[in-house]
Design goal:
155 residues; two-stranded antiparallel ribbon; elongated
């Protein structure tokens, strides 16, 4: 189930809230862990039960230019990176904050310059956890706090 609720708070301010609930498990997964090891009833990999998003987007006209800014929050519940659903394959829940500020202009040739930041709280989180063939733990980490500038021109 998924719900998204946009609200135009002001002419220049759009608020959004979203939530997704996923109940995803194998009805039957015979021999999923090898001969005689069934994964029936276990959760699908990379399917958190709950994901939420909140965002605010603001636009302001300054002469012939537009200043756009946005702030976003996202949350992902605990999930697994393997259908065996064991502790070494657990991806803990995490939350992220992102922001963007852009100036836009042009009539025939549209352009924009944006400053953005991702994972503003600099959360350490993983997108994959597991064991290698030698049973050594391994993980893939999400991006740390990142900033950038993006410039675009639409001809």
């Amino acid at each position: 189930a998924e719900v998204e609720l946009p609200a135009q708070a002001l002419n220049s301010l759009l608020l959004k809230a979203g939530m997704a609930y996923t109940e995803a498990s194998f009805v039957s997964f015979k021999n999923g862990g090898g001969v005689g090891v069934d994964y029936d009833g276990r959760r699908l990999p990379f399917a958190p039960r709950i994901k939420t998003t909140l965002s605010a987007e603001h636009a302001m006209e300054i002469g012939s230019l537009t200043l756009r800014s946005s702030l976003g929050y996202s949350y992902a519940d605990k999930q697994y990176s393997n259908p065996n659903n064991t502790a070494p394959n657990t991806i803990p829940r995490y939350e992220l904050w992102n922001a963007r500020v852009a100036i836009e202009g042009g009539s025939k040739t549209r352009w924009s310059v944006a400053l953005w930041g991702k994972n503003l709280a600099d959360r350490v989180y993983t997108t994959f956890n597991g064991l290698n063939a030698l049973t050594t733990p391994r993980a893939i980490y999400g991006q740390p706090r990142t900033f950038g500038i993006t410039a675009t021109v639409d001809l």
